[in-house]
C-alpha cells in the first residue's frame, strides 16, 4: 500500500478518536496526518511527510492554546447575581449576625474588621449559606 493511504487511515482513526474526546487536539493531529498524506501523494519522501505532519501539529496546537486562552471565562453562578445587593440587618454583633435578604434570614459575617454594622451593608461574597458583607 502507498504511504499516503497509511497517512489517511491514521488521519481517519485520529478524527474518529476526536469524536469521543471533544478536545480538538486530536483533530489537529488528524489534520496533520492528512496533510502528510497529501505530501506523500505529491511524491515527497518520508522526511518531508514527517516534517509536514510535525509543523502542522505544532502550529495547530499553538493555535488551539491561543484560542482556548481567549475563550476561557470563569463560569458565573447564581450567587454572583447577589454581589453588591443591599441587605437589612436583623442582628449584628462583633462582625457576625443575621440579615434579611430576598425574604429570608441569612447568616452573615463581615469581610473585615473595619465593617460597621450600623451603616448600610452590601453583599461582597457568598460562602455556602453565609453572606460576606461590607459597607457601601
Offer a concise description of the structure:
By secondary structure, the protein is an alpha+beta fold. Helix content is 46%, strand content 25%.
What would your notes on this structure say?
The chain has 136 residues and is α+β, with helices and mostly antiparallel strands. The protein folds into 2 domains: 3-71, no CATH class; 78-135, OB fold (Dihydrolipoamide Acetyltransferase, E2P) (Beta Barrel), CATH 2.40.50. It is built from 3 helices and 5 strands, in the order H-H-H-E-E-E-E-E. It has helices spanning 3-21, 25-41, 46-71, and strands spanning 86-93, 96-101, 104-110, 121-127, 130-135. A 5-stranded mixed β-barrel has the order 1-2-3-5-4. A hairpin with a 2-residue loop joins strand 4 and strand 5 (130-135). Helix 1 packs antiparallel against helix 2 (25-41) and helix 2 runs antiparallel to helix 3. The chain is rod-shaped and about 80 Å long.
Keywords:
136 residues, alpha+beta, OB fold (Dihydrolipoamide Acetyltransferase, E2P), 2 domains, five-stranded mixed barrel, 3 helices
Amino acid at each position: 500500500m502507498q504511504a499516503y493511504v497509511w497517512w489517511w487511515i491514521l488521519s481517519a482513526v485520529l478524527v474518529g478518536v476526536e469524536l469521543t474526546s471533544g478536545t480538538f487536539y486530536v483533530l489537529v493531529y488528524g489534520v496533520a496526518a492528512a496533510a502528510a498524506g497529501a505530501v506523500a501523494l505529491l511524491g515527497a519522501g518520508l522526511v518531508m511527510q514527517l516534517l509536514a505532519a510535525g509543523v502542522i501539529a505544532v502550529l495547530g496546537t499553538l493555535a488551539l492554546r491561543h484560542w482556548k486562552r481567549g475563550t476561557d471565562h470563569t463560569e458565573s453562578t447564581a450567587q454572583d447575581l447577589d454581589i453588591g445587593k443591599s441587605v437589612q440587618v436583623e442582628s449584628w454583633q462583633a462582625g457576625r449576625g443575621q440579615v434579611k435578604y430576598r425574604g429570608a434570614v441569612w447568616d452573615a459575617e463581615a469581610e473585615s474588621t473595619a465593617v460597621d454594622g450600623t451603616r448600610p451593608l452590601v453583599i461582597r461574597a457568598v460562602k455556602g449559606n453565609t453572606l460576606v458583607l461590607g459597607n457601601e
